[in-house]
């Protein structure tokens, strides 16, 4: 259970570092994207086989894709495509974390 709190805090931190600059018009933070990708890969491994996942983490993950896609309209075509690509990549990792590998 304590590990879940650490996972939640780390996840919330990196999600914030990725989404806030996007909403502020500062663009995609590649470092935060890489950190979140690594974190989600680790969470998928540690959550594999569990019947449940931490509630706060699940809420953050389910809100991540719309948060990213919703900012794409703030940017030029190139940056918008990068943001949408990042959203798709993170969605795939999210589905793996939550136990759904559907394409």
Structure overview:
The chain starts with a helix and ends in a 6-residue tail after the last helix. It has helices spanning 2-23, 30-47, 55-69, 77-97. The chain is mainly alpha-helical and 103 residues long. The protein is built from four helices and no strands.
Question: What's the quick description here?
Answer:
With 103 residues, this protein is mainly alpha-helical. It has helices at residues 2-23, 30-47, 55-69, 77-97.
Please give the structural blueprint.
Blueprint: H1 2-23, H2 30-47, H3 55-69, H4 77-97
Helix pairs in contact: 1-2, 1-3, 2-4, 3-4
Q: How many DSSP-defined strands?
A: 0
- The whole-number mean of residue pLDDT values reads 89
Classify the beta-strand content into a percent band: under 5%
What portion of residues is helical?
over 70%
* Sheet with the most strands, sense and barrel status: none
Total of helices: 4
What general outline do the C-alpha atoms trace? elongated
Radius of gyration over all CA atoms, rounded: 14 Å
Query: What is the string of SSEs from the N terminus onward?
Result: HHHH
Structural class: mainly alpha
Give a quick set of tags describing it.
single chain, 103 residues, mainly alpha, 4 helices, 74% helix
